[in-house]
């Protein structure tokens, strides 16, 4: 009896343990069930969203089909209109070609009439025009020859003037060099005169030598006067003449260049 009771207790304990385990599993299953319900709700929401999107897409497809039909209708209308325009274009081109041909025919007839008239007038006036042209040509040639002769003469005169001007410049340079040399000689003589006077003052000169020194002094003064006259003459006469001649030739050269 006790053994049965113990066995029963053991079984009860096992059952309790099993119940506890099952309770825990049941709790886990409830949690999983709740999660599944939540996921199911989300899926249902997604399904509803997808269904709505599907409806929207179907509506959009319907709208696009309508737009496509409208566009196709417009394309067909434009094609018909283009065909109509092409036919009108062909008609206009045909009219233009016909008008051009008619105008060409009229212009050709008018040209032939005017051409025949011009030919007849040309035959009449050809000799007179030829004579006038020959006369004008001869006159033009003579004028050109005269002009060339004048230009040639001007060039020759200009060459001569340039040559004369070069010679004048050369002479002017030579005179300037001569003037410089004379100035140097005069300065040298003046220095010698000063040196002689200083020597005469510093030395006791005998009477016979004093007379010779007076003669030398007089000779120096004569040479100095001649030198001054030569320089003055060169400055005032020759240089003035050459300067005037140079200005005259330079003015002539400028006038010929301007002409």
Verbal overview:
Keywords: Coiled coil. It is a single chain. Helix 1 crosses helix 2. With 259 residues, this protein is mainly α. The chain starts with a helix and ends with a helix. The protein is built from 2 helices and no strands. The radius of gyration is 69 Å and the shape is elongated. It has 2 domains: 122 residues; 110 residues.
Distance between the termini: 168 Å
Count the helices. How many?
A: 2
Give the low-confidence spans: 204-216
Structural class: mainly alpha
Instruction: Describe the largest sheet.
Output: none
Number of domains: 2
Looking at how many chains there are and whether they match, the oligomeric state comes to single chain
Number of strands: 0
Query: Percentage of helical residues?
Result: over 70%
Mean pLDDT: 74
Radius of gyration: 69 Å
Strand content: under 5%
Q: Secondary-structure element order, as H and E?
A: HH
Break the fold down into its secondary structure elements and pairings:
Blueprint: H1 2-202, H2 207-258
Characteristics of this structure?
about 260 residues; mainly alpha
Quick gist of this model?
With 259 residues, the protein is mainly alpha-helical. It has helices at 2-202, 207-258.
């Amino acid at each position: 009896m006790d053994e049965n009771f113990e066995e029963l207790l053991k079984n009860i304990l096992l059952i309790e343990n099993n119940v506890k385990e099952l309770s825990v599993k049941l709790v886990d299953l409830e949690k999983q069930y709740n999660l599944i319900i939540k996921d199911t709700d989300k899926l249902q929401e997604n399904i509803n969203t997808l269904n709505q999107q599907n409806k929207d897409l179907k509506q959009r497809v319907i709208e696009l089909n309508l737009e496509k039909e409208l566009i196709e209708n417009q394309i067909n209308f434009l094609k018909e209109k283009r065909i109509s325009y092409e036919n009108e274009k062909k008609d206009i081109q045909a009219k233009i070609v016909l008008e051009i041909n008619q105008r060409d025919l009229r212009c050709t007839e008018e040209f032939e009439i005017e051409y025949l008239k011009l030919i007849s007038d040309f035959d009449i006036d050809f000799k007179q025009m030829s004579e006038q042209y020959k006369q004008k040509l001869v006159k033009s040639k003579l004028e050109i020859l005269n002009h060339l002769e004048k230009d040639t003469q001007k060039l020759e005169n200009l060459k001569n003037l340039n040559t004369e001007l070069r010679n004048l410049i050369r002479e002017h340079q030579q005179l300037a060099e001569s003037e410089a040399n004379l100035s140097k000689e005069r300065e040298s003589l003046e220095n010698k005169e000063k040196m002689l006077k200083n020597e005469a003052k510093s030395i006791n000169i005998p009477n016979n030598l004093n007379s010779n020194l007076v003669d030398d002094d007089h000779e120096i003064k004569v040479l100095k006067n001649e030198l001054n006259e030569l320089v003055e003459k060169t400055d005032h006469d020759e240089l003035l003449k050459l300067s005037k001649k140079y200005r005259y030739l330079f003015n002539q050269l400028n006038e010929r260049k301007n002409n």
